[in-house]
Amino acid sequence: MTPTPRRASCRTALGVEVARTIPGVREATRTGDRLELVVDDHVAIAPELYRRDPAVAELTISRVSLEDALVLLLGKDQ
């Protein structure tokens, strides 16, 4: 069974390139001081983020939207 992707967002000094090396991260972008991720394992991402940056703040995890799911399934160019 394929895991249901989730969106994670937090304030962190971690860069996008570093975040993309975390296992299970499908996408990583930055919006201001927030790191925005799409992840496979929402349970494992929190401890991994805190391990890499103990100053992580305001971590939220939510379901991806229908639009996000379609982009993940069809690719960004569709």
What structural class do the secondary elements suggest? alpha+beta
Mean pLDDT across all residues, rounded? 87
Low-confidence stretches: none
Strand sequence of the main sheet, in spatial order? 2-3-1-4
End-to-end separation in angstroms reads 25 Å
Number of helices: 3
The percent range for strand residues is 25-35%
Helix-residue proportion: 25-40%
What profile does the largest beta sheet have? 4 strands, antiparallel
Kindly state the number of beta strands: 4
SSE pattern: EHEEHEH
> So what's the overall shape?
globular
Radius of gyration, whole Å: 12 Å
Question: Short summary of the structure?
Answer:
Helices cover 31% and strands 33% of the residues. It is α+β, with helices and mostly antiparallel strands and 78 residues long.
Features:
about 80 residues; alpha+beta; about 30% helix
Q: What does this entry look like structurally?
A:
This protein has helices at 16-19, 42-52, 66-74, and strands spanning 6-11, 25-31, 34-39, 57-63. The chain has three helices and four strands. A hairpin with a 2-residue loop joins β2 and β3. With 78 residues, it is of the alpha+beta class.
